[in-house]
Amino acid sequence: SSSSSSSSSSSSSSSSSSSSSSSPSSSSSSSASSQQSTLRLTAQHAEPTQVFRPSSNFQQRSRLTVNISDHSQLHVLSSANPLTQSYDLIAVNPANEKLFHAACGMDGIDIICVDMCTRLPFYFKAPTISLAIQHGIMFEVAIAPAIRDVSARRHLMNNVLQLTRLTKGKNIIFTSQANKHMELRGPYDIIN
Question: Per DSSP, what are the bridge partners of residue 141?
Answer without folding.
Answer: 174
